Amino acid sequence: MSSENYAIEMLHITKRFPGIVANDDITLQLKKGEIHALLGENGAGKSTLMSVLFGLYQAEEGVIKKDGKEVKINDPNDANALGIGMVHQHFKLVQCFPVLDNIILGVEDTKNGILQKQEARKKVMDLSERYGLQIDPDAKISDITVGMQQRTEILKMLYRDNEILIFDEPTAVLTPQEIEELMQIMKHLASEGKSILFISHKLNEIMEVADRVTVLRKGKCIGTVNVKETSEAELSRMMVGRDVQLVVEKDEAHPSQTVLQVENLTMSSKRHSNNAVKNVSFDVKAGEIVCIAGIEGNGQTELVYGITGLEPVTSGKITLSGEDITNQSIRQRSLKMSHIPEDRHKHGLVLDYPLDYNIVLQRYWQPQFVNKAGILKKDEIRKYANTLIDKFDVRSGQGASTVARSMSGGNQQKAIIARELDKDHDLLVAVQPTRGLDVGAIEFIHKQLIADRDNGKAILLISLELEEVMNLSDRILVMYEGEIVGELDPKKTTVEELGLYMAGAKRNVQKGAE
Questions:
Q1: Which of 197, 226, 377, 380 is the most exposed place for a label (fewest CB within 10 A)?
Q2: Are residues 88 and 147 in the same domain?
Q3: What does the pLDDT profile of the chain (514 residues) look like in tens digits?
Q4: Are residue 208 and residue 330 in the same domain, yes or no?
Q5: Do 98 and 211 sit in the same domain of this protein?
């Protein structure tokens, strides 16, 4: 195929950071009008490669060609001028601005210094109609769902007439329904002649939507294959370098005493006048994984905030290991409770702290890490951090001294999981524990959660991934509009039935109902 038929060619790209070669002689060729997936483990160098194409980083070696001609991309403005747009994994939106202002930000039309919004609004609404990207142009970003924020990001690219669209892990934060919609949108964009680069580590999505896939492993290019001629097992072998178990193996649960008891819990909502959690009661016993399933925005987040102490409860009672913790501080709760939070940046890490400090965030005041004068024992902290980094395979350029912000999303997640599983706890509250992780890491985390269960811990799992819900849970509670509408046995139910409960189409509230 001659060079002219490629929209973008990245030839022999090498990008280095302190202590790590993030991209090692990588060649990637994107055909016009194709959806090309970039697959790899967390930290394989996918986002780095795309950041080089988008002008956020400069490669030390290699060339980039567009339509067969060599180009220099020094910053995102150069990328935009070449028709290259990017939707980042963590969206780049101004929270207090409305949707429309976010879309036109940086390319506003003005006359005599006055913003011309009428034409901009018309163009945005036409695009939204044409590509099936329904949005409310006047809604504030801080008030809309993650799926809507993502549509805003996609419209931002289309508004700039970008021809080459980069999607960095676009489905990591979406519900199953939103993922399905996004897949349709991507196919539609490709059929209109847009060329799409799609970073992902979800094999089923790549199989569904991509034409070709390039696999990266530890910064090197393993190969490019046609999706029609490969399989999930083959791709996961290319990506991880070994066979991966795609199904969770676990023995029967042996639940014993009740660890967490939630009685008539009500939590108010920040978004609307109705309560987010309405009079919810359930319990979790030692040695079992109870999963709360539901479509995002049905009160799961607020429920977790109430149990972990991030928000005060409106009414109701929470008991942990026989002790009333309804009004306890987070530190008091953390002596018996571990929490893998939904938002790793907001509640999981101090991004500008090094990895070792993040690992002892909840324990730095304990005698193991601080002397009687209140001075941190830095060597002890470093030693402890290194043990966990090894055990949980947390990859970072400079080990324990790496600043958390510079690590890949998946490795940030592994660091949080290492910290929470290793500290003393009777209850683990795990919210989306594998969000944004690759198959190898998911397999590892699932094994850790099962081991925690088998060690007699109580686990409350909140997940939007239906396969994860079905695979890991011993009991499933479905939340819909702030209430628990069903209790299901994963061995006796199907994904379809679970989906009906999640959509509010079915209810069984009496305990033990089939």
A1: 226
A2: yes
A3: 556 689 999 999 999 988 889 999 999 999 999 999 999 887 789 989 999 999 999 999 999 999 999 999 999 999 999 999 998 877 788 989 999 999 988 888 777 788 778 888 999 999 888 888 888 999 898 887 777 888 898 899 889 889 999 998 887 667 677 788 889 989 999 998 999 999 987 888 899 999 999 999 989 999 999 999 999 889 988 988 887 776 778 888 899 999 999 999 999 987 667 789 999 999 999 999 999 998 878 899 999 999 999 999 999 999 999 999 999 999 999 999 999 998 888 889 999 999 999 999 989 999 999 999 999 999 999 999 999 999 988 988 888 999 999 888 888 999 999 999 999 999 999 999 987 777 888 888 899 999 999 999 999 999 988 888 998 999 999 999 999 999 999 999 988 888 888 878 777 654 443 3
A4: no
A5: yes
Output 302-305 pairs: Cβ under 8 A, ≥24 positions apart: 302/267, 302/268, 302/269, 302/276, 302/277, 302/482, 303/265, 303/267, 303/276, 303/277, 303/462, 303/479, 304/339, 304/341, 304/342, 304/429, 304/431, 304/462, 305/267
Total of domains in the chain: 3
In a domain, residue 341? The reply is no
Shared domain check, 222 and 254: no
Judge whether 368 lies within some domain.
yes
Q: What is the CATH number of the domain that holds 282?
A: 3.40.50.300
In a domain, 118, yes or no: yes
Regarding whether 429 and 328 lie in a shared domain, the answer is yes
d(CA 229, CA 212): 9
Give the C-alpha separation, 76 to 56, whole Å.
Answer: 6
Q: Check: CB of residue 139 under 8 Å from CB of residue 112.
A: no
Find out whether 15 and 216 touch, Cβ atoms under 8 Å.
no
- Does residue 185 share a domain with residue 46? yes
Closest CA to 425 of 302, 263, 284, 280: 284
Average pLDDT, the chain: 89
In terms of domains, do 390 and 432 share one? no
Which contacts (CB < 8 Å, 24+ apart) does range 246-254 have? 246/439, 246/443, 247/471, 248/446, 248/447, 248/450, 248/471, 248/472, 250/450, 250/453, 250/472, 251/454, 253/287, 253/288, 253/289, 253/453, 253/474, 254/287
Rounded Cα–Cα distance for residues 225 and 235 (Å): 9
Residue written as tokens 């009991």? Answer: 475
Contact 509, 324 (CB under 8 A): no
Measured CA to CA, the distance from residue 71 to residue 54 in angstroms comes to: 12
Q: Does 329 share its domain with 363?
A: no
